[in-house]
Specification:
Blueprint lengths: L13 H11 L6 H13 L4 E5 L2 H11 L7 E5 L4 H8 L4 E5 L21 E7 L8 H11 L2 E5 L7 E2 L2 E2 L6 E5 L12 E5 L5 H8 L5 H5 L19 H12 L1 H18 L1 H5 L12 E2 L5 E4 L3 H13 L15 H6 L1 E2 L4 H9 E4 L7 H17 L1
Parallel strand pairs: 2-3, 2-4, 3-12, 4-5, 5-8
Antiparallel strand pairs: 1-9, 6-7, 6-10, 8-9, 11-13
Helix pairs in contact: 1-8, 2-8, 3-4, 9-14, 11-13
Bound molecules: pyridoxal-5'-phosphate.
InterPro entries: DegT/StrS_aminotransferase, PyrdxlP-dep_Trfase, PyrdxlP-dep_Trfase_major, WecE-like
Protein name: dTDP-4-amino-4,6-dideoxygalactose transaminase
EC number: 2.6.1.59
Length: about 375
């Protein structure tokens, strides 16, 4: 049996909606863009939501909207994708990397305060694997120090913290609809604007620095250049594909949780015997089945288990090279302190196959393969 790592699964109406968008208008901010935004605004109420070409560009919009500039510092984890840092580096800011927690692999909120300097302007949290960062503590620190909070919620659609949707906690939050995420559109993202005072400027930045959104709504009689901005809005073809996915979001996430739960139950024995560690979802958090990972003893063990899994037909992959140890991260950022958990997690973490429709038999095959490797190791 072979088990691929990821597969794009259609919800069913993608082609139909793309056809409709071609018959109507395929430029940005068309009918399907409006439908997607309305659907997301319902989930993230009372936020304003704008579709973007990616989570990367939604983060870039966040950096513009929080007026982060040269020499400013933004606190973030190092165990994340490059876009978390690039968005701020593009504005001349310095990413300040903080170590992560060993249970959720999320930024260690207990280390944030010590990383604050007079130049700190924002905290950008990343909800790794769709499991929440400790938002109560983070928001408390931010409000005491007057800092903006931005959620890189690329992996977090459908997850909650204390019963509230991730993406609703920061001043701004960024979602991804890249083909590797829970809800997909090839390339795509969304900016969630929880601080509604930023909404009007967000619409202008989104539409190349013009007031075209207000014009479309009939609020001004001509549109013109009013601020800086760029082309952050996707084609309505992308939105058409995405709308079909959003309609099936609850079913897609429920199916991913089924698979996540089956791995978690199936691997309890190996954890009890000390051969691997399973992921932790704190009791006040609800996951979205985005990533299932295991932690092995060290880098050599991770390489060995990945190789043995491949021999059993199972694709399994590491995740991030920590940004603080990457060539650009060394040059453009700095660490707030030692990074032992980040370094160890990067060495030890192995992601297992997870996509909607992965069968129970396939999950059991992966679990059996891990059992076999454990017995031989
Ligand atoms: C996927 C991802 C991104 C980038 O998303 P794109 O939509 O591909 O730009 C940013 N941050 C994190 C944590 C991600 O997982």
């Amino acid at each position: 049996m072979s088990v691929p790592f990821n597969k794009v699964v259609l919800a069913g109406r993608e082609f139909d909606y793309i056809r409709q968008s071609i018959d109507d208008s395929i430029a940005g901010n068309g009918r399907f863009t409006q439908l997607c935004q309305a659907s997301l605004e319902q989930r993230f109420a009372p936020a304003r939501v704008l579709l973007t070409t990616s989570c990367t560009t939604a983060l870039e919009m966040s950096a513009l909207l929080t007026s982060i500039g040269p020499g400013d510092e933004v606190i973030m984890p190092s165990f994340t994708f490059t876009s978390t840092a690039n968005a701020f580096v593009l504005r001349g800011a310095v990413p300040v990397f903080v170590d992560i927690r060993p249970d959720t692999q999320n930024i260690d909120e207990a280390l944030i305060e010590a990383a604050i300097t007079p130049r700190t302007r924002a905290i950008c949290v990343v909800h790794y694997a769709g499991v929440a960062c400790e938002m109560d503590a983070t928001l408390d620190i931010a409000s005491r120090h007057g800092l903006a909070v931005i959620e890189d919620a690329a992996q977090a659609i459908g997850s909650t913290y204390r019963g509230k949707a991730l993406g609703t906690f920061g001043n701004l939050a960024a979602l991804s609809f890249h083909e590797t995420k829970n809800i997909v559109a090839g390339e795509g993202g969304a900016l969630i604007i929880n601080d509604l005072a930023l909404a009007e400027r967000a619409e202008i930045i989104w539409e190349k620095g013009t007031n075209r959104v207000a014009f479309k709504r009939g609020m001004v009689d001509k549109y013109t250049w009013v601020d800086i901005g760029s082309s952050f809005l996707p084609s309505d073809i992308t939105a058409a594909f995405l709308y079909s996915q959003l309609e099936s979001m609850d079913a897609i996430i429920a199916d991913r949780r089924r698979i996540w739960d089956r791995y978690q139950a199936g691997l309890a024995r190996l954890e009890a015997s000390g051969q691997l560690q399973r992921p932790v979802i704190p009791p006040h958090c609800e996951g979205n089945g985005h990533i299932y990972y295991i932690l092995l003893e060290n880098l050599d063990a991770r390489r060995h288990w990945a190789k043995e899994l491949a021999a059993a037909g199972v694709d399994a992959f590491m995740h991030y090279v920590p940004l603080h140890s990457s060539p650009a991260g060394r040059r453009l950022g700095r660490t707030a302190g030692p990074m032992p958990v980040t370094d160890a997690t990067s060495d030890r973490l192995l992601r297992l196959p997870l996509f909607p429709g992965l069968t129970d038999a396939q999950v059991d095959h992966v679990v059996d393969a891990l059992d076999t490797i454990a017995r031989r190791t």
